[in-house]
Amino acid sequence: MSKFLNIFAPAIGGAGLILGAAYAIPTKNFRAEEAALAMEQAAAAEARAAAAEARIAEEAARAAEEVAALQAAAATAGPSDSGDPAPAGVTYTLGRTALPEEVAAWDIDIRPDGQGLPVGSGDVWTGEEIWIAKCAACHGDFGEAVGRWPVIAGGEGSLATDDPVKTVGSYWPYLSTVWDYVHRAMPFGEAQSLTDDEVYALVAYILYSNYVVEDDFTLSSENFTEVVMPNEGGFFMDDRAEAEIPLFSEEPCMENCKDSVEITARAVILDVTPDDPTDDTPASAPAEETAEAVDEADPATAETDEAPAEEVVTDASIDPALVAEGEGVFRRCSTCHQIGEGAVNRTGPHLNGIMGRSIGVMEDFRYSNVMADAGTEGRVWTEDEMAAFLADPRGYMRGTKMAFAGLRSEEEVTALIAYLTAEGG
Hints:
The chain is mainly alpha-helical and 425 residues long. It has helices at residues 2-77, 100-106, 124-134, 136-139, 175-185, 196-209, 240-243, 320-330, 369-376, 383-391, 393-396, 410-424; strands spanning 121-123, 218-220.
């Protein structure tokens, strides 16, 4: 056994040395290559950083040169003749020149002298159709407004009162403002979707609703400047720089002031919040006749808590088909009027018992003077009287507050009278 160990032990030891050397040599070479690659990557990163620093320094130098040039130009050139505070001939290399199409998209303002108006025209009747389709949902069929939306028509003579109503007719000084606003911002949610002719027609209808023009009026780019707004004289050029500022240029008086402050007046609180949150009719709004397509009712037929409304008796001689047609026409009146069981006054009076009744006699409704005077004279809502009124309300009874333009055809008038007779008793 000892001989065996003496012979083979040296051989085994030599083999182990050879195998260890064979493993160590490639491992050493791999680590050397890895270190060399890391050194190359570090050198590349240093080169990129140096290049970035060079670019930053170059841009900073160029910016400094531009600032120096601007300062030099500002010191020598001064303001331009146009009043532009920027130095003459100096550009800031920002943005680009606007394209003609881009300028045209923004340059849509209209001036009181008609400058900026496009060529076009539109009549009152066309304007009424557009109004009903695109405007009435917010502003009412006659400009009386729905809910909290702005009132467009009415308010004549109210500016000097404690509760002024500022509408196109009562307040706006120039027609160009109306045209510009309708064209620029309306209809709500569809701004600038109207054609020029549609804007002309809508503005014509707004003028008609405010008693500025008659129903046969056509507004155009040619007669635009001939329209004078009712309140144009209520405006004047701002002269505060000349009239007021000099009063404060001297030292204000600080002597002989009053010992105490006395309240001599208080602001008027306008209660325009509806009592019933489900009712969109302002609780404080008086029952005015701003839209009374048909203008009467019998108080005895109105529904009350104490006495229920009497059953409406329909005239059997009236053609049911004509009544149905009249019901469709009445939808144009229903914004302001109610009829039938449970009808109450709204912007206009309810219409139960309208046919055959005296004009302007309902005690709980405030009529215009012309309606009240007609009742005093003993006039009654006969078919002839009603037909004449429905065809041209403001022409037949000048001074009525109703802004409705009137029904276009005799067929509509006949149908509506049939419906009022049958439904209202």
